[in-house]
Amino acid sequence: MSESTAHETTVQELVHGCPSVESFGQKVVFVDRDKYVSVVKALVTDGFEVCVDLTGVDYLTHSGRTLPAGITAERFEVVVNLLSLEQRERLRLRVQVPESDPVLPSLFDFHPGTEAHERETFDMFGITFEGHPDMTRILMPEDWDGHPLRKDYSIGAIPVQFKGAHS
Amino acid sequence: MTATQNPKVIAAGTSEGGQELRSRSELSAKELFREVGSVLRMSETDAAALAEMQAEAPEDQTMIINMGPQHPSTHGVLRLMLELQGETVLRCKPIIGYLHTGMEKTGESLTYMQGGTNVTRMDYLSPLNNELVFSMAVEKLLGIDQDIPERAVWMRMLLSELNRMSSHLLFLATNGMDLGAISMMLYGWREREEVLRFFQKVTGLRMNHNFIRPGGVAADLPAGWRDDVLEILENLPSRLEEYDILMTGQPIWRERLQGVGIITAREAIALGATGPILRSTGVPWDLRRDTPYLRYDEVDFDVVVGEHGDAYDRYAIRFNEIRESMKIVYQILDRMPSGDYRIQNKKVTPPPRARIDESMEALIHHFKIFTEGFKVPEGEVYVAIESPRGEIGCYIVSDGSPTPYRMHMRAPSFVNVQALPHMMRGGLVADAVAVISSIDPVLGEVDR
């Protein structure tokens, strides 16, 4: 991944030492892989008690995305949506996950609701979550090869022979 | 890059176990505890009682059975593996994916114009809510979310509230059917059909409408729509009263639902459950009120909240939400503004049919929009609304092309199904059906 092509945006503030930007009025925090668990844990005490959603994005063919200074663009990103019921606020975490080592610690211990999301992200992108109690495929069959939502996984096609067509 | 070009290499490098419920002898004590206590925030006494229950049942006295995927009460193709000791459910594991059709992958090759046809098929019982959240996300990326004409906004509200009613009426029907109240099944389907008939008149289709589109809605309301809505609203109250007599107060109905499938507020929050499941535990969380979208802050309605977190509360909440939705629809009828039903922004709106006959540019424009689609600026956005089943969210990453780079739907049923093992543990196998029914999962949305 060519980091040089990534644009940089102005960092608005730091959330637990991580740069945060505004994306269409929504707060987005860029978290390092090493700080991921401690930041989520700290955010739970800040009131972000619900983990609404966790998913992945494969940036293989879209490398020039906008990132704040100091964040190295990697092929995969894990996106976590947190919600605070009391403050009625949302917060989105984006974690860069390198292609060479697609591993992230699991959030299962303080957000048990991410169990299915992490399995789905593993199934679709091949990102493994360390400490997850049941790291198996969830939507695809167990013996499936590959991870369908990766950009280098072709959508496939069945050849159709038309009558009288050239080859 | 070498490893990624060959998916087999990656697959070999990851440890993919079986998806099925494993027998207890294969699990270490720690793993078992984690699986059984899928909500880990238990008190110590609870955990001790749980360990006792597990120790009391030696493996030769329990049985693992499959419920589904072809079971009429699993609402589609949900498969549950249950470990039973006699009639008691010790463990349960939902196994999903039987309806997986790769809709998120498909979404990456459809333009923003075509995307609605894809997402509307996810939660097929509330298609209009899926379209709405997708359109709202696209509009936010385009920066036109504040410019949607008033009539379109109120039409969207009208349709999504009627959709909530039709979805909850179907819940009453299936909940009744699962518990043996067959008359309720017939009544529920009948009432829902009346709402769907209205949808057919407005959108052309009973389901999978693709009516709410980025920029507004596809067409204006047909002549006489107000009378049709009023007819639905006037027929419904007396029938709802009838169902109240038929079910709510009936001792058998209460016996089957009260105290079944209990979940506490803390557990529901930890599991990320939303919608009627979260509200049944006493948490008054409704996105329509708490993070208002469309014009929900201008209409008056109550958020129905339960107390016990059992299947009966979830039934009662949905039942009363039909009445709240009717209240909202009456207010929408009073306030429906006139004007455009879609944004007059040439970028996203095709020219009217009449212009195509007289203007070459209009013809080209029309052709371009439908073949190539419109380009959406780079960025990523997450938009969430309250569907009948809970928070439905749409996460879109755009790379500036006419198709989404990544389109992810946060499906409420997908998350809510995780609460099943917790609700069923220690209950009777006969109550399993009542518990599944009370979650009201739509498998099209679970598997996507």
UniProtKB/TrEMBL annotation, chain A:
<keyword id="KW-0813">Transport</keyword>
<dbReference type="GO" id="GO:0016651">
    <property type="term" value="F:oxidoreductase activity, acting on NAD(P)H"/>
</dbReference>
<protein>
    <submittedName>
        <fullName>Unannotated protein</fullName>
    </submittedName>
</protein>
<dbReference type="InterPro" id="IPR037232">
    <property type="entry name" value="NADH_quin_OxRdtase_su_C/D-like"/>
</dbReference>
<dbReference type="Pfam" id="PF00329">
    <property type="entry name" value="Complex1_30kDa"/>
</dbReference>
<dbReference type="InterPro" id="IPR010218">
    <property type="entry name" value="NADH_DH_suC"/>
</dbReference>
<dbReference type="InterPro" id="IPR001268">
    <property type="entry name" value="NADH_UbQ_OxRdtase_30kDa_su"/>
</dbReference>
<dbReference type="GO" id="GO:0008137">
    <property type="term" value="F:NADH dehydrogenase (ubiquinone) activity"/>
</dbReference>
<feature type="domain" description="NADH:ubiquinone oxidoreductase 30kDa subunit">
    <location>
        <begin position="30"/>
        <end position="155"/>
    </location>
</feature>
<comment type="similarity">
    <text>Belongs to the complex I 30 kDa subunit family.</text>
</comment>
From TrEMBL, chain B:
<dbReference type="GO" id="GO:0051287">
    <property type="term" value="F:NAD binding"/>
</dbReference>
<dbReference type="GO" id="GO:0048038">
    <property type="term" value="F:quinone binding"/>
</dbReference>
<dbReference type="InterPro" id="IPR001135">
    <property type="entry name" value="NADH_Q_OxRdtase_suD"/>
</dbReference>
<dbReference type="GO" id="GO:0016651">
    <property type="term" value="F:oxidoreductase activity, acting on NAD(P)H"/>
</dbReference>
<dbReference type="Pfam" id="PF00346">
    <property type="entry name" value="Complex1_49kDa"/>
</dbReference>
<dbReference type="InterPro" id="IPR022885">
    <property type="entry name" value="NDH1_su_D/H"/>
</dbReference>
<feature type="region of interest" description="Disordered">
    <location>
        <begin position="1"/>
        <end position="23"/>
    </location>
</feature>
<dbReference type="InterPro" id="IPR029014">
    <property type="entry name" value="NiFe-Hase_large"/>
</dbReference>
<protein>
    <submittedName>
        <fullName>Unannotated protein</fullName>
    </submittedName>
</protein>
<feature type="domain" description="NADH-quinone oxidoreductase subunit D">
    <location>
        <begin position="178"/>
        <end position="448"/>
    </location>
</feature>
